[in-house]
Amino acid sequence: MALADDLVTAVLLASTAFFVALALGLLIRYRQVSQKITASTDLGHDLWQALEQRMKKQDERILDVMARLDVIQSRALAAAAAQPPVSPPSPAPVLRPEPAKELVPGVMPEAPIVQQPESRVESHVSQAPSPEVQLDETQLRAISLLAESPKNTRQLTDAIGLSREHTARLMKALFEAGVVTRNATTKPFVYQLTDLGKSYLTPSSS
User: Fold this and answer.
1) Is residue 153 a contact partner of residue 164, using CB atoms and an 8 Å limit?
2) Which residues pair with 193 in a beta bridge?
3) What is the mean pLDDT of residues 120-140?
4) Which of 56, 69, 60 shows the shortest CA–CA distance to 26?
5) Percent share of the chain, pLDDT over 70
6) pLDDT at residue 204 is higher than 90
7) Domain 121-205's class?
8) Does 188 sit behind a cis peptide bond, omega within 30 degrees of 0 on the bond before it?
9) Extents of the domains making up the chain
10) Helix, strand, coil tally for the chain in percent (to 5)
């Protein structure tokens, strides 16, 4: 449709240019002829009337062409206004991943401490070592810390200065030896000295 309108517009513009050029040619011709026939009044009058009629016809044709051009332009503008504007597609939302928590090599992430309505203290009684069995310095350090107050694995890890895995293995060995008890309803476990563990704090154990 748009191509056909453009073609018609081009044809009309070419016709208009042709008629304008023809009118100019007639005017030039008229001046040339009028100079030659100035001596003959009757002939000049007839020629003038003939040229005047031709000019009127050319003017009518030019006006008709201009009216057609106006109609075509108005139709093209109406068709363009009737078409809905094409909006660009909205960009898809960018999903930003949540920053990953930094993990320390060799240290497992700790679960939050969850308090249960009822505490369940586990104790382990096996071939418990007698106070005469010597414990290493790290074990004695853990026992002295528990003598102050019950502590969980995280607190012991910070106080002793070992890794969490090392501290967990240390406390497991003390638990299995019957030196400490642990509250299994908390994460991490809360450890407390047993009577056997307290015996290592007496001066006779040194």
Assistant:
1) yes
2) 180
3) 62
4) 56
5) 70
6) no
7) mainly alpha
8) yes
9) 2-82, 121-205
10) 55, 5, 35
Quote the strand ranges of the chain, DSSP E. Answer: 121-122, 151-152, 180-183, 190-193
Residues 6+ apart with CB under 8 A from 167: 142, 153, 156, 157, 160
pLDDT, tens only, 107-120: 455 555 445 445 56
- Please give the helix or strand (H or E) that residue 119 lies within, else none: none
Query: Residue 199 has which token pair?
Result: 């015996």
d(CA 194, CA 146): 10
Question: 1-5, 6-10, 11-15: lowest mean pLDDT where?
Answer: 1-5
DSSP secondary structure string for all residues of 137-184: HHHHHHHHHHHHS-EEHHHHHHHHT--HHHHHHHHHHHHHTTSEEEET
Residue pair 203/188 in contact (Cβ under 8 Å)? The answer is no
Which H or E element spans position 14? helix 2-36
Residue with tokens 């070592």: 129
CB atoms under 10 Å from CB of 139, counted, come to 19
* Residue-level pLDDT at 72: 92
Q: What is the pLDDT of residue 117?
A: 45
